[in-house]
């Protein structure tokens, strides 16, 4: 159904008892959520806030950094349901969506309904395929909540940089360690918070074992790979710390969105943001 070019074949090794024990204590990073689980998350007030704010930030990027130009090239790695690619495709971009999950690609196809398939391609593979894509090709690469599931984050940033055109932009969204810990403290789980603060890992993540990052680590990695950071914005600065009855109240979404919009651009509140959206230029 999807282009399966140069697919990397992974030969599964038999697991030794020692490896099995290591996997129980320290499960391998892996995204495990289904399309249904992603849709449920995006229907929640916190999912809708993330989507609305990020869509607004991407629209602004298109307007201000790309001057509303048409025909620009986007690569979306780990597109999930495809709604962020859809936004730019509907503003005249050409897009490549790359995901190892056939189910996610099928969901992307549904999201992109109504857009001519002359304007996009779906690649069924994981982020390692990047190395086989043409260098210096894309104006913008999106990697939103992907780096959390990868063993080699530095390699991802390098491979993305090689695929970007000169002065091309990276749009990276990642979960912050400090905020993931604070979220658990507020919910009365200080031991879980401590465990996360140790190495950033979340072993019992709803969407699979993953890791979180500090701003310092991400910004240092970007710097080492030769990116210049242009913007850092917070996604969900207040929402996750509020009691559910407040988040779910019928009239609270609009109020919360207004608050979150203002908070997203306040540097002093960034450490509270559950996720950071960083835009960086290939320098
Ligand atoms: C948490 S979801 C994020 C989806 C979307 N970017 C968003 O922000 O809603 C992670 C996505 O990355 C994909 N993914 C997981 N491991 C990957 C890998 N190694 N290479 C590329 N994509 C991967 C998953 O299938 C899923 O679509």
CATH superfamily: Vaccinia Virus protein VP39
Indicate the radius of gyration in whole angstroms: 19 Å
Structural class: alpha/beta
Task: Please state roughly what percent of the residues sit in beta strands, choosing from under 5%, 5-15%, 15-25%, 25-35%, 35-45% or over 45%.
Answer: 15-25%
The CATH architecture would be 3-Layer(aba) Sandwich
Number of strands: 9
Domain tally:
1
Query: In this structure, how is the largest beta sheet organized?
Result: 7 strands, mixed
| Alpha-carbon distance between the two ends | 37 Å
Bound small molecules, by name, code or SMILES, are: S-adenosylmethionine
Helix percent band:
40-55%
Output the helix-strand order: HHHEHEHEEHEHHEEHEHHE
Explain what the structure shows.
Helices cover 41% and strands 20% of the residues. It has one domain: Rossmann fold, CATH 3.40.50. Helix 2 (35-43) crosses helix 3, helix 3 (45-65) crosses helix 11 (252-264) and helix 7 runs antiparallel to helix 8. Mean pLDDT is 92; it is low at 5-15. By secondary structure, the chain is α/β, with parallel strands linked by helices. Helix 5 (102-111) links the parallel strand 2 and strand 3. It contains 11 helices and 9 strands. It is globular, with a radius of gyration of 19 Å. The strands form 2 sheets. A 7-stranded mixed sheet has the order 3-2-1-4-5-9-8, with helices on both faces. Bound molecules: S-adenosylmethionine (SAM). Residues 31, 77-80, 99-101, 104, 126-127, 144-146, 149-150, 207 line the site of S-adenosylmethionine. S-adenosylmethionine is lined by residues 31, 77-80, 99-101, 104, 126-127, 144-146, 149-150, 207.
């Amino acid at each position: 159904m999807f282009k399966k070019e140069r697919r990397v074949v992974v030969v599964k090794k038999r697991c030794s008892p020692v490896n099995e024990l290591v996997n129980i204590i320290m499960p391998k990073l892996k995204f495990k959520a289904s399309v249904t689980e992603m849709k449920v998350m995006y229907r929640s007030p916190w999912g809708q806030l993330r989507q609305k704010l990020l869509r607004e930030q991407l629209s602004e990027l298109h307007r201000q950094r790309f001057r509303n130009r048409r025909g620009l090239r986007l690569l979306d790695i780990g597109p999930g349901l495809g709604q962020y690619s859809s936004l730019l495709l509907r503003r005249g971009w050409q897009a490549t969506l790359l995901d190892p999950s056939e189910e996610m690609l099928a969901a992307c196809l549904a999201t992109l309904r109504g857009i001519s398939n002359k304007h996009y391609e779906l690649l069924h593979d994981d982020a390692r395929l990047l190395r086989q894509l043409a260098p210096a090709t894309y104006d913008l690469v999106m990697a939103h909540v992907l780096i959390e599931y990868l063993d080699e984050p530095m390699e991802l940033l390098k491979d993305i940089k090689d695929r970007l055109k000169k002065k091309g932009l990276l749009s990276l969204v990642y979960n912050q360690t400090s905020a993931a810990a604070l979220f658990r403290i507020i919910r009365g789980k200080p031991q879980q918070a401590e465990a996360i603060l140790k190495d950033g890992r979340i072993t019992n993540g709803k969407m699979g074992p993953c890791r979180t990052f500090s701003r310092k680590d991400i910004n240092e990695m970007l710097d080492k790979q030769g990116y210049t950071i242009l913007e850092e914005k917070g996604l969900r600065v207040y929402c996750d710390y509020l009691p559910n009855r407040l988040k779910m109240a019928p009239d609270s979404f609009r109020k919360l969105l207004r608050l979150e919009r203002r908070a997203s651009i306040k540097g002093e509140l960034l450490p509270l943001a559950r996720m950071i959206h960083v835009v960086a230029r290939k320098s």
